[in-house]
Write a structure and sequence with these properties.
Blueprint lengths: L2 E9 L7 E8 L4 E5 L6 H9 L4 E8 L2 E4 L11 H10 L5 H14 L15 H15 L3 E5 L7 H17 L2 E5 L3 H7 L2 E6 L2 E6 L1 H8 L6 H8 L8
Parallel strand pairs: 3-7, 3-8, 5-6, 6-7
Antiparallel strand pairs: 1-2, 1-4, 8-9
């Protein structure tokens, strides 16, 4: 098991927890979609996994992971290639093979021409591609991806999904938070639906259809039914 989460309650302080009773896990080769309305607690759930939420009561076990945030984060005044070089310095891998793979990914996402430019000046889509490249170069046991499709054009989304498929085949697990439900429906093995800071349901699309009462419903339609009375969390 690559991730095991059992949160009794969690939040930015123990006075007003924003998450309660959330349990789920991710196994090798599994893509799990973390879904829910805006403010339902998805970001807080991810922060609890990353260990950056101030108050967490419960148990969280997580293997080595790569985190791809919704808003790309870069080191000031480091070029794209310097980010790649820095990542290499933190890993115990073959340097030649690593750089070969880095160049392949840079070509794939059409970023080879900006190797020596600063990512902080890139467009949102280009920045997102850089974060993806760095994560996939690390080849972790687990990927935690927050809104990966934001800012990406359709071709880049297709490439990302192909790479996720390869990583699943390698045995990696993926937790993907997303609002793009039609894509999630086609790609995720299971779903964790959070609403109002609580776990509503987890399972396959068939499980969610059964719980929502929509036997042939799309993920979008089931989502709408199951979160009808949702209110803002954070």
């Amino acid at each position: 098991m690559l991730l095991s989460l059992d949160i009794k309650e969690a939040g930015y302080s123990n006075v007003s927890p924003v998450l309660k009773d959330i349990q789920f896990s991710i196994d090798s080769g599994e893509l799990v979609g973390l879904i829910g309305p805006n403010g339902a607690g998805k970001s807080s759930t991810i922060k609890s996994i990353l260990g950056i939420l101030n108050y967490v009561k419960g148990n969280i076990h997580v293997n080595e992971y790569a985190y791809i945030p919704e808003r790309p984060i870069f080191y000031d005044r480091l070029t794209l290639w310097e980010h790649v070089d820095f990542l290499l310095s933190t890993l115990n891998v073959d340097e030649e093979l690593f750089k070969l793979k880095a160049n392949e990914l840079l070509e794939l996402f059409h970023l080879s021409h900006v190797l020596h430019h600063f990512p902080e000046n890139f467009s949102k889509g280009m920045q997102q591609k850089v974060m993806l490249i760095l994560a996939f170069l690390k080849k972790p046991d687990l990927y935690i991806i927050d809104e990966p499709f934001m800012g990406l054009d359709p071709k880049a989304i297709k490439k990302l999904l192909q790479m996720i498929k390869k990583e699943k085949d390698r045995g990696a697990g993926i937790l993907m938070s997303t609002h793009v439900l039609d894509t999630a429906e086609k790609t995720c093995d299971r779903f964790v639906l959070i609403s109002n800071g609580k776990l509503v349901i987890q399972g396959t699309l068939e499980d969610i259809r059964k719980d929502s009462g929509l036997k042939q419903g799309s993920l979008f339609d089931c989502f709408d039914v199951l979160t009808e009375n949702d209110s803002y969390v954070r």
